[in-house]
Amino acid sequence: MMNRTRDIQTLILSFQPLIAIATLEEERVQTLLQAVAQDMNIALFEWSITQGLTRSLTSAQAPWVNDYAPAGSQNPRGLENTTEPAQMLKYIRETSQKGIFWLKDLSRHLDDATVIRQLREVLQVFSYTTSTIVLTGENLNLPQEITRDAFFYDLKLPAREELLVVVREVIRNLKAKRQLQVEPTEQDVGAFVQALAGMTLRQARQMIVYAAMEDNQLTAQDVRGILRRKAQIIQAGGVLEYFPVENKPLNLGGFAGLKRWLSQAKIGYTAQAQALNLKPPKGILILGIQGCGKSMAAKAIAQSWQLPLLKLDAGRLYDKYIGESERNFRQAIALVD
Q1: C-alpha to C-alpha distance for 226 and 207, rounded to whole angstroms
Q2: Predicted confidence (pLDDT) at residue 71 exceeds the cutoff of 70
Q3: With helix as H, strand as E and coil as C, how does the chain read?
């Protein structure tokens, strides 16, 4: 988290007028930008087509927030005449308030020449100040004249530390509401974090709550349920196939070299190897004619090491729209990572 905060601060201080983050994890973006705004003691504004431009309630300058107020009652009132993109950008260009302006899904409105012109004028002003615009959305297909001023920031999937915070937060809340009869051990918590790797914070929170609400307890047995739900999310993406861990013995005839490599390479993934700073193998290339056992070998490796198998089908990557095939590939690799 601190590294990301420092990254954004550096971009702002270097007069970067536009930061583009291709993500739907607005919760993480909000947490990141709030931390940046507080450290730099500047204002944070948020915009959406439904709310207009609002001052973030949890920035350094915000008033105290009542956590027990009804849902939606704490939403700040949008500034007048800032709902429409062109009007909002005009307001930003004319205001003397410095800060971070987080614009959600604005890229969907960049097919309007007036909006593009307004945005370019704002970026021209921000190029000489420590104010910046942050764009977020799933697909940030920006016009060429906007792309030149944009820095595309890669917000990677939540790290282990972030997932650990979420798991402990959920456990603490469940205990406070007396909805958790059996509390997980530290070893179980570590297993949950490992199983949740690759999920968003919202998905991780939902999975842990679901596992707890089934029987009012969280134990090591819930890890398999989490992995099953994780497999469903992966399958829903449509690009990757997920094969769960199988407990069947490895039954693969021949492949003497592969079997020898499996027994040797497995050591690279152990805690002892990590303690010695030994890096595990990055991969293996299996090449051969159709029907020689390449797919079988991949399944055998997963089965031997007791790991799930993710299969990327190149045919599912291709899309008729320009850029979509590349985006599918990047999303698949990010999910695997």
Answers
A1: 6
A2: no
A3: CHHHHHHHHHHHHCCCCEEEEEECCHHHHHHHHHHHHHHHCCEEEEEECCCEEEECCCCCCCCCCCCCCCCCCCCCCCCCCCCCHHHHHHHHHHCCCCEEEEEECHHHHCCCHHHHHHHHHHHHHHCCCCCEEEEEECCCCCCHHHHCCEEECCCCCCCHHHHHHHHHHHHHHHHHCCCCCECCCHHHHHHHHHHHCCCCHHHHHHHHHHHHHHHCECCCCHHHHHHHHHHHHHHHCCCEEEECCCCCCCCCCCCHHHHHHHHHHHHHHCHHHHHCCCCCCCCCCCCCCCCCCHHHHHHHHHHHHCCCEEEECHHHCCCCCCCHHHHHHHHHHHHHC
**C-beta separation of 35 from 5 below 8 A:** yes
Provide the CA 167 distance to its chain's centre, in angstroms. 16
Q: What is the pLDDT of residue 249?
A: 66
Complete domains list, the chain, with CATH:
2-152 (3.40.50.300), 160-236 (1.10.8.60), 256-336 (no CATH)
Q: What's the confidence (pLDDT) of residue 19?
A: 97
Which residue's entry shows tokens 């595309």? Answer: 152
Indicate the pLDDT class of residue 159, thresholds 50, 70 and 90: confident
Q: What is the pLDDT of residues 75-96, one digit of tens each?
A: 567 788 899 999 999 999 998 8
- In tens, the pLDDT along 91-148 reads 999 988 889 999 999 999 999 999 999 999 999 999 999 999 999 998 788 999 999 9
